[in-house]
């Protein structure tokens, strides 16, 4: 959609940051359930994170660490959410592309 058009780069960047933080929050919340499904996902995630070299920074099998990330750290980093909502309210959403000569405009 080229949503960064028309001075909307800050809106797009804040939306990407908010999306990434929400994925992290959902993941740590899922790991905090302490059932067999979340343990399985945790071991798979541990292997994936260790393969990137980032496994030295956090341990997804540590319940206390994941609960701390889920409750304290990730929600406290929610200013991109607020900034994104304010920017969308202020600047609106990006309009669709104008049809070219070879394209017919679709009815709304």
Description:
62% of the residues lie in helices and 0% in strands. It contains 4 helices and no strands. The chain has helices at 9-31, 36-52, 63-76, 79-91.
Q: SSE order, as H and E?
A: HHHH
Low-confidence regions = none
Shape field: elongated
Termini Cα gap? 17 Å
Strand fraction equals under 5%
Total count of strands: 0
Radius of gyration: 20 Å
| Structural classification | mainly alpha
* Total DSSP helices: 4
Largest sheet: none
* Overall pLDDT metric: 85
Helix proportion range: 55-70%
Write the layout of secondary structure elements.
Layout: H1 9-31, H2 36-52, H3 63-76, H4 79-91
Helix pairs in contact: 1-3, 1-4
What's this, in brief?
The protein contains 4 helices and no strands. It is mainly α and 108 residues long.
Throw out a few tags for this protein.
mainly alpha, elongated, 62% helix, 108 residues, 4 helices
């Amino acid at each position: 959609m080229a949503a960064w058009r028309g001075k909307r780069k800050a809106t797009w960047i804040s939306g990407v940051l908010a999306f990434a933080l929400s994925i992290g929050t959902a993941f740590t919340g899922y790991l905090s359930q302490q059932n067999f499904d979340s343990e399985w996902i945790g071991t798979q995630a541990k292997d994936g994170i260790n393969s990137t070299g980032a496994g030295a920074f956090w341990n997804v099998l540590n319940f206390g660490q994941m609960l701390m990330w889920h409750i304290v750290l990730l929600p406290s980093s929610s200013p991109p959410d607020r900034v994104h909502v304010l920017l969308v309210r202020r600047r609106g959403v990006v309009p669709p592309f104008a049809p070219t000569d070879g394209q017919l405009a679709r009815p709304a």
